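It would be a great kindness if you could assist me with a short task in structural biology. The matter concerns a single protein, recorded as an amino acid sequence and a row of C-alpha cells. Kindly check, if you would, that the fold set down in the C-alpha cells agrees with what the sequence suggests. Thank you for your consideration; the sequence and its C-alpha cells are set out here:
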Amino acid sequence: MNAASIPSEIVQSSSDRLKITEIFLSLQGEANAAGWPTVFVRLTGCPLRCQYCDTAYAFHGGQWWDIDAILAEVAGHGVRHVCVTGGEPLSQKRCLGLLRRLCDAGYDVSLETSGAIDITGVDARVSRVLDLKTPGSKEMARNRLENLALLTPRDQVKFVLCGRADYEWARDMVAQHRLAERCDVLFSPSKSELPPRELADWIVADRLPVRFQMQLHKLLWDDEPGR
C-alpha cells in the first residue's frame, strides 16, 4: 500500500507511531535475501544526502502509522520476509520497537541502515545491512565506524561504489577492519557511474573476499517507487 492511500482510520493519536512513506510487496533486490518475496516498510526521513540516492522521495512527507496498524498491513501480504528501510529508518527512534515487534511476530526481518546512527539497540534477531558510505557518496564523514565492531555473522556491510577511487577505499576498509571475518561484504556499482563489468573484473583480479551484487529490483523495474 502506498502511503498516499493510507485509510484515515489507521492514523491514530498514539505516541507509538512512525512516519511511513510506503508499505509494499516486492522481491528483495539485494543482500542475502535477494529474490525472496518481501514486504518493505519504508520509513520517512533521512539525515544524509548521498549524491546517488534513489529514494529522495522518502526524505519528506509520509503519514503517521500506529505500529499495530503497520503489523496488520504486513500480515495482510502473507510473506515471511520483511525489510525495514528508508530514508534512514533509525532516524525515528520508535523504529527499534517496530523491529522488535516484527521479530516477535515470527518474521525474517532485515534493516537497511546507512550506518550513521548507533545500531546497538537493534534487536539481535534482525539482519542489519549496513551501507558504509564511500567518498563518492559525498557523505563519508557521516560513517559511524564504531558500528563496525558490533557486526555479527547475521549482518552485512554494503559498499555502493562510484568509481575506482571508491573501490580502492572500500577494499582498504575491508582489510583494515577485517570485515569479511565479521559478516558478508557486498560491493555494488552505483547506477550510471560505474559499469558493473568493471567492478566485477576488479573484484576477480584482487580476489577480494566480497560478494558482487547488482540490485535485482532495478534490473526488473528500474527506479519505479513501490517496486
Q: What stands out?
A: The chain has one domain: 3-221. Residues 209 and 217 are 24 Å apart (CA to CA). The helical segments are 67-77, 95-104, 164-176, 179-182, 196-206, 216-221.
